[in-house]
Every structure is written in structure tokens, then in C-alpha cells.
Amino acid sequence: MELHAFDAAWSEHCSYKSSRRFLKNLPTSGARVLLGPGEDAGILHLGTHDGERYAIVVAHESHNHPSQVVPFEGAATGIGGIVRDVLCMGAEVIAVADPLRFGRCDDPASHESHVARGAVDGIGAYGNAIGVPNVAGDVYFEHGFDENCLVNVVALGIVNEKDIIHSYVPKGAEGWQLVLVGKATDPSGFGGASFSSLALDARDAELNKGAVQVPDPFFKNVLMRASYRVFALLRERKVVAAFKDLGAGGIVGCSAEITAHGGYGAQIELDKVNVAVEGMPPEVIAVGETQERMLWAVPPDFVPELLRVYNEEFGLPDVAYNARATPIGEVTAQRRYVLRYRDQIVMDVESEFLTGSIHDELPYTEKIYHRAAAQELPALDIQRIFPRVLAHRDVCSREPLYRRYDSVVRGRTVLPRGAADAGVLAPVPGSRLGVALAVAGNPRYGSIDAAYAAEQAVLEAMRRVVAVGAHPIGLTDCLNFGNPRRSEQFGGFVAAVEALAHAAAELDLPFVSGNVSLYNETSAGRAIPASAIVACIGSIADIANVVTPGFKAAGSALLWVGSREFVTGGSVLAELLGDKGTLPRIEYDAERAALAIMRDAIARGVVRACRVVADGGMLTAVARLAFDARAAGRKLGAEIDFGNPLCEAGGFVCEIAADSGMDVTGTLQIGTTTDAPELIANGTRFDIERLYEIWSQPLAKLYP
Q1: By CB distance 3.0 to 4.6 Å, which of 275, 366, 422, 521 could disulfide with 436?
Q2: Is 63 part of the annotated catalytic residue set?
Q3: 39-355 against 547-704: fold identical
Q4: pLDDT tens per residue across span 342-378
Q5: What is the CATH architecture assignment of 39-355?
Q6: Domain 547-704's class?
């Protein structure tokens, strides 16, 4: 029993034993931070409505290995787990997002395509069933992910700040009851934490499937609504409680942490655990990672009401076999973690020893990228190459994938998935407060320089929320890398964390939640591209000021705000030209200046439309604005003149009223909008309808 418990608790996935010392360098405090990393989710102040202070709860996780082995179930349980992390802070879950990285899916019949379809279907099936909108995400297709897909997930919740529930017991909790809530414990997911801390081996595919949990989103829907009812009762009766998700490490991982992090111990009676299969050994009951379970720590006199809500009012036993809320132990003053099974003690260890800060100081090779001299770009045949850019797997429309997601359920969505660079919601009923969410992380950069990719992920995620009119208030990260016991792989991880810390400090943005996913490589040693994936949360004081999609009128000025460095390193254009190129410089003074221009213009209401310049370059951003107008029934186009319109150096393309009176210092007017559905770039004409057809079709073969 103890060997299995420590195998889970001290795994890389649970303990962060080799990464924690570097993660401490990330900035995690700020004016908006109510709770940084350390509990199930981070919390940021959103705003005030009717005298009440509201907060956004955010969590960011990965479910990579399970999704590669069993795509549908692995990705679905990723959504299920991240939703519980937010729910357990006392929040109403309002949105999810999914940054995805798959292998090349050029052949719809390939295994890579099977993984991509299965993961997307799993995300959609779970999110739709629990009634939570999927409002943001991205996807890349690269050979580096052929054998190790990445399924990262983000969830948002809304909570009144006075109603936040913590993931550990408070002082004075001795004698509190530990109440397990949810599905009956079964053997599924046994060894999941250890499995996520190993390199995948195709020869073990069938064996590994047993470490993947089984999702049940319809049961989760009931479980969430029951928990919301418990939240209301806690508020009414002014009862303090603790609540935590049963994720990696199962009952042991959760009950040990919820008590030890409050300075207490626990005594658990495994015979009281509701099980789906009789006769399971104690280690399977204690460490198995059956989905749809959570753990309450509550005062004894609240237990009857807690059981009544889950078991009678919401009828958990009638929804799934032997599902229920059931007391399984208590909080003890003695700081020991004790498990009993069939009247015998099967585990008795110091709580802090089990849950404490185990360290594994691995060696690493310092990774330094040496910037090459910028090379003059060759003359481009825009007529020939721009359609290829739009059809590129990293640029073309993702609508064939995300149309499987409901992005407007519950009626709080302001900008749905795909409508703009970020999703926007109005999370507080009756309020004009808004929240924006965007993700970023370019694996082409990661293949060249892990640190640069991490910095750009911060910048691009931040730009995306700014482009819809939001004020960036916080970040999350999911750090996906190869085997940390290979010094060059761990060196890339270390460099990426240092880069994240630098970018966040330069932009005065804190990290409030995150995850580390290592061992993303095959048994043959083929690691994924370095993938630091970042999410940015933005606040909006008045949703009436959201920048809506698409060109609005003919005769508007088109402004470029941002870097105009004509280099192609890591770009789609570089890949199509067969040229590595030079990575664009990151100049934080210029970034801050561009952000100041955008914020001022949006605050004064002169920005009619905006798109971030990213994959595919500035010309792609202009085309997307025309596509957005087309979707709204406006037949508008643009005429632009720019040195290299396919350059991906980051910035913004904005539509501004020609008579706006805006101070354009620091911007460049690149053209105007027109009343004809065509795009004219440096004298070359394109039909908008034809461009849209080229852009919208490539992924249809993956999802016909």
C-alpha cells in the first residue's frame, strides 16, 4: 500500500520534484491576484457589481499521455479534471478552452488523424454534456507530435470573492469529517500519475489503457449542480469548509494534501469507500483515479445536510451504480496519514513526508540561442504563395474541429469560439463585466529555441485579449517537454521557464495557475518540440466596448501597430520557402508602446475591428477581417501596401475610422477598406470568396 502511495505522490506528475525549484522564479503576485499557484486553481479579481466583488477562477492542465493512448476518453477526462479544479474553489464553471498539438494529419486514415479526431470528439462530448461553453483554444499539426499528442485544457469559473473555498482545511479543523462525493471507486486509472511520468512505448499500448480513467459527463452535470446547491447552503449558514478534486493519486493524493497543507493529519477507513467492484485490494481503492469524485472536509454537524443534498435531493445513487456522498475519515491533530482496511492499518506515515517537497535536482545543459544576422528576404510572388499560406495546416480554418463544441450554451458568451482572437463572456448576470480568454504557443518556434517560444507565447496570448478590448490581468502556463533526465531536454525546460518569468515581469503580468508535463517522448528518445503553452485572462469593465469581428465600413484606415522587422524565422512563410530564417527580435519597450496605443484607441472607441498578426502574417490577418465581415453579411475588402505582407513579426492590424482624430504616432497606415469583396496587396488582386474557400477547406478532410 505504501509503495503505491509514494509511487503516485512522489511521481513527477504529482510532486514537481525536478521542476519546482525553477517554477519559483515565475512572478505570481499582483494587484489583481487573490490566489496564486498552490491550490486547485488560481483566482484573479475581475470587478465589482452592485457592491459585490467578483473573481475569475482559472486552472490549466494537461492530459497528454492518456489522450495519445485512448484519445476520446483521455481528452474527455482532461476536461472533466480541469472543471473539478475550478469547481472545488467554490466557483461556477463558465468556460473551457483547449490548446491542442497533434501529429501531421495529411492522411485522414492515419493513426495521427485517429488521435486528433478522437481527442476533439472527447472534448466536445464532455463539454457539451456538462453545459459549459468552449470559447478558446488553438491547434497545431507537426510531425514532432506524431507519437505524443498534447491535450492541454483550461477552465474558468466565476465566484463572489467572499465565497471562495480553499483546497486545505483551516485552523481548528481537528475532528472534521472527510466526505467522499461522486462515482463509486473502480480500478480505472490505477497508476495514472506514474503513467504520466513515463515516456510512452507503443509496445505497452494495451497495458497503458488501464491507467486511463473513464469519463462520465452526464453524471458530472448532476454532481456540479449538487455542489452549487452545497455552496449556497454553506453561504446561508456561514459554514467554513474545504473542497478538493480527486485527481492524480486518487483518495490518498487528495485526502493527504487537503489535511497536510492545513497542518493536520488524516485517518481514512477504506472499508467506507463506495466501490464499484467488491474485493479490490486496498492500494487500488486508495490510489485508483476513478473520475467524477471530490472530497469535502466539513464540520461534523454539517455532514447530514451534505449527505442529504447529494444522496437525496440530487439522487446520486440513482444516477450511477453505488454513486453517493459518504464519510470516509476524519482530520486528526496528529500529523500522520493513516489508512485502515478490514480492521488493519495498511499505511501509517508522516503526512508531511508523503506530501512534502521531495526534490530531484537533475543536471541540465544550458540552452543558448545564437541569433544569426538578419538576411534580406527574396522577392515574393504574392499571387502564388499567399493561397499556400492560407491553406497551410497552421493557418487554415479550425471551424471543422471546433464546430463540434458548443460555445454559446448558458447564454453568457459575447464572442464565441473562432469569432475573434479571444473568447469573451459576460459571467455575472445583470452586470456589464466581461472576461476574455486566449491561448498561444507556437511549436515552430519551440523547435528552434525553447526560450524564445515561451516568450512569444506570453506576448501572443496577451495580444489576443487586447485585440478584443480586454485588459490583461493574469497568465497560466502548461509546460510540455520531453524526458527531464536527458540534460538537453531539461535544459530547454529551464530556459523556457526563465523566459516566461522574464516576459511576465516585463509586462507586469502574474502567473496564477499552471502545470508541468514532462516525459513527452517515445521510448526511442524522440521528444516533442518544446511547448510552453500560455493562456491569458483579460478583464472588461463594460462589454459594450468589446471589439467585434470583421471590417465595418468602406473607407476606413487600416493601421499596423507593432514590430515591422522583415524576418521569417519560425514562420509559415519560412517553411514554405524552405528557409529557416532569423527569429524576430523581442523588444519590450516597443511591445509596451504598442499595447498603450491599442488600449487608448479601444478606450476611446475608435477601433472598428482588430486582428492579431501571428501565423500567416499581416496579410492573413487582413484576410481574416474580410472573412469576418463576410460572415456578418458585409461585402467588404481592403487595399494595402506593405513591404512584406506575409511577415509574422507580432502586432495588430486595426480598422480605424478615417476621421477618428486618433494620434497615429507609432503606427503605420498600410491601406484602406473598400466596398468590393476583394483584397489588393501591393497591386496583386485576390477575390475574397476564393480566398475564403482556400482557407476554409483543408481540415474538412479530417472532419468531413
Answers
A1: 422
A2: yes
A3: yes
A4: 999 999 999 999 998 789 999 999 888 777 776 666 7
A5: Alpha-Beta Complex (3.90)
A6: alpha beta
